[in-house]
Amino acid sequence: MRMKSFKAVFKQMFLQKVKYIHLVLLIQIITIIFLALFSNKGREFNAVLSEVGLTSTVIADLAITTILCWQNERINSSQTWQLIPLASSAKYIANVLSSVLGCIYIFIIQLLINFILLLPYLSASPVPININNLEYGVIHDYFRLCVSLFLLVLVIFIFVSFVNFLSYLIINILPTNTKWIRLLVIVVLTVVATYIFGYTSTGSISDWLKPNVQYIIDILIFGSFDLWLINKYVESKIK
């Protein structure tokens, strides 16, 4: 692999991950069609189709986030990727950002899919829909939701890498046959992170700023640890 620039590495990482995104989207579309056909039960088909589309979107997003986390750590732990003549910190940043771009990519496609599924339902509505009549508050709240989701997935990717890198460090420090300790560390950190993220995510729309500031702080803290760990410990262990 003769990729020396950040852009080339970023592109290659994204292309590797987009295959899984297309697979998840394909499964989602097949699921929507199947459930809409066989879960009608006398209900209006358009309503069932839009409902299944929204529900499957949430499940697909959880699935792709998990897959991208796995891909991130697979790349971080890959000797082949580490041999690329580019700084480890730059490869780590490219890895995380390519996953974030993957989330944005699937989000846009899912948005289009759900819009298409909702078109028959909206056209049959007795109340005419005029996009020019949308309230500023609705658009504003939707924009804030997108920002929150962007920061949240960034926190998830960075924190998962932090747990993985820290487990490498523990294995290096402690005696051999300590894989169960690594597993214990992962479980403990995951429980703590779930509590913290759940606490900072609670609140109404008016509390939007609080969790997002916390997300930014988490990104800076855990991101800094990740860059330090991958340069000092992880790279040497992989090699």
TrEMBL record:
<keyword id="KW-0812">Transmembrane</keyword>
<feature type="transmembrane region" description="Helical">
    <location>
        <begin position="142"/>
        <end position="171"/>
    </location>
</feature>
<feature type="transmembrane region" description="Helical">
    <location>
        <begin position="183"/>
        <end position="201"/>
    </location>
</feature>
<feature type="transmembrane region" description="Helical">
    <location>
        <begin position="92"/>
        <end position="122"/>
    </location>
</feature>
<feature type="transmembrane region" description="Helical">
    <location>
        <begin position="213"/>
        <end position="230"/>
    </location>
</feature>
<protein>
    <recommendedName>
        <fullName>ABC transporter permease</fullName>
    </recommendedName>
</protein>
<keyword id="KW-1133">Transmembrane helix</keyword>
<keyword id="KW-0472">Membrane</keyword>
<feature type="transmembrane region" description="Helical">
    <location>
        <begin position="20"/>
        <end position="40"/>
    </location>
</feature>
<feature type="transmembrane region" description="Helical">
    <location>
        <begin position="52"/>
        <end position="71"/>
    </location>
</feature>
